[in-house]
Amino acid sequence: MRVEGVIKIMAFAILTGVILMMSTGSADDDAWQRQWEARQKALEAVLGAADDKVLHSPVPFHLDGAADVLVFRKHNEGVVYVTADLIGDDRSKPNSLGQYELMICTPKDSDWAPQLISNLAKYTIVAVLNPNDTMDIGPALPKPSEVSAFLYLPYSKLEVEGKKSAVMLCLGITSAELKFIQNNDVEILVKALKKAGIYPMTDLSRSSVPLP
Asked: Could you give the 3-state DSSP secondary structure of residue 115?
């Protein structure tokens, strides 16, 4: 399958969200708490136990803030960050897999990665991120970085409170890789990234993988 186009949004639109804070947090609303627990349970069934502490947005997602982010350290050799507010929120537009949470994997702890997907979560209220879509994120990344775009890939199917949903991987790719998949099958790139031991990581320091 070929990528149909590049989703473009301005870098400041990704970065305008508030800074996430480390907190254990609590919810007074029973319905909100039940939904939160259902999302976390579904995510942990796929990714292993999450950290006890949550990266909280000072302004909650349901009040037009950024998304809270769960941290997983037992899924792979890196650190996995996943939003935990989109599934079940009526404003979050579903794709072909249903509603979805955004996931990014990094080789080590990162400040920019959870911040980026936390703010990007607000984009799902106004647009749909479909499998194999791409997005220019170069201006929003720390420098230096060879990575310049996200490739959105289905990572895992979920079921949250009886509803089909999913985890969407935000995979960092280089400008050369982005150019390649605009004219070639995405799976060719994904196979090359797996062969190089990169997938599902977003590593800002890596070079482009060899491509046919």
From this structure: helix
Q: How much is the pTM?
A: 0.88
Q: What is the pLDDT of residue 20?
A: 64
pLDDT in tens, 137-169: 999 899 999 999 999 999 999 999 989 999 999
Q: 182-199 in b/e burial notation, b at 16+ Cβ within 10 A?
A: eeeebeebbebbeeeebb
With vertex at residue 90, the alpha carbon angle to CA 159 and CA 122, rounded to the nearest 5 degrees, is 100
**Contact call for residues 150 and 204 (beta carbons, < 8 A):** no
The two tokens of residue 179 are 């150019």
CA distance 196 to 191: 9
Alpha-carbon gap, residue 55 to 84, rounded angstroms: 10
